[in-house]
Amino acid sequence: MAEQPAQLDRNRWLALWSRLGAPQNGVDVFQQLAAAYAEPARSYHTAAHIADCLRQLDWSHDLARRPDEVEAALWFHDAVYLPGASDNEERSARLARSSLSEGAAIQGVSDRVAAMVLATNHQTPPSDPDAQLVCDIDLAVLGKEESEFDQFENQIRQEYAWVPDATYRSARAQVLNGFLARRSIYYTDRFAHRYERRARQNLERIVATLSR
Description:
This protein has helices at residues 10-19, 26-37, 47-60, 67-76, 88-102, 109-119, 129-138, 146-159, 165-180, 189-210.
């Protein structure tokens, strides 16, 4: 029997929406997110990725200063995803801000969540500890077991299936080398302790393959 695709957890989302003080639009926003993560062009940036991020948050919940806002950022961080676009995170951040504002969330929540979503472009190291945690959770896949990491890489390639192989290999190697160039891939000690060594092994191995 074929494995069923992961589904977003509606009850978990609605409970979070309520804790954020947003009395309106919770079901509508959930349906919008569910449709986004089920888009046919996605192979990795799906509900399964969000479910894994939420498991990582459950494991590191005590590190968050505002855990509900961290969780909201994870739900929204890949809501807009067009492979090759440079503004996916910016557009996802705008969606987070507008959804929370229209839902009448507690003052300040929408801006903080949007800032954490924007941090997942992984371009500038965030100074906010909660944004650092969101980024670490998003990158946890880099430090997974070799088979899971390879599945991730294959799924990313599927999302860029329209890109010629030589072009993709060069661009992907550049992205992954950017992570290897960091002093530490992860910002928090907990994620670094659990994932840093294997993440570097995975990245070095795949970069060598891409460079052949």
